[in-house]
Amino acid sequence: MPIKYARRLTDRRRSKQSNRQLGLCLAFIAGAANAGGFLAVQQYTSHMTGIVSSMADNLALGKTDLVLGGLGGLLSFIGGAITSTLLINFSRRRRLHGQFALPLLLEAFLLLCFGVLGARLMEIPGFFVPVTVMLLCFIMGLQNAIITKLSNAEIRTTHITGMVTDIGIELGKLLYVNRNERPGQAPVRANRERLRINALLVGCFFAGGVSGAFGFQHFGFLSTVPLAALLLTLALVPVLDDLRLGWQLWRRRR
């Protein structure tokens, strides 16, 4: 990946185009981690809707252990979002180039841990759920907060319900026949760009899911290592820029 392109994707200077291109990469990674993670832990970890709904169902059925298991996943997702926000605000106050690269770097490290140590982590109990489930939920919360903050909540990557809803809305506008409008009444027009980017995000999530499921089926936990390598490639350039500038500033002060 060219250095200038990697810097443009994750640097503090943002554009709508770079937000969307990074969103497509992260949607692919989220789909792969979610689908591959399901084969590993028998639970989807990217969206909290299902987890909270299952908590309500299990509470009504008196299955307290499953309620607490869902709570462990939910708190892990929230913890990931909190961590991402802390890292981004810390970097933003210091005007670092790696504002969004630091949480991506952390995500790469955690995915690498999942890939290398996943089989062992399955045996370690976490907060009412295995550590692997907590780790995946944490990663998903971490990533969703990154793309939410850098795109001002325009893009989501770890769950596609909102994106599919937006696709339906824009298709409804596209199919609407404008006739007999009142004077001064604006015609209904679809936002084709919004329709296109949401369709691409859903497509990347699906492609990532196929890739993640295929990879885990054939390579097990190690299938997440290429995902970690991709995140590392995206995050490394701005972080190295900050280290270089910090080194230059330190030498000047000597």
TrEMBL record:
Keyword Transmembrane included in the entry's annotation: yes
Keyword Transmembrane helix attached: yes
One Pfam family this sequence matches: DUF1275
Transmembrane segments: 21-46, 66-88, 100-121, 127-147, 199-219, 225-245
Superkingdom of source: Bacteria
Family matches, as InterPro entries: DUF1275 (IPR010699)
Keywords tagged on the record: Membrane, Transmembrane, Transmembrane helix
Protein name (database record): Uncharacterized membrane protein YoaK, UPF0700 family
Organism: Geopseudomonas sagittaria
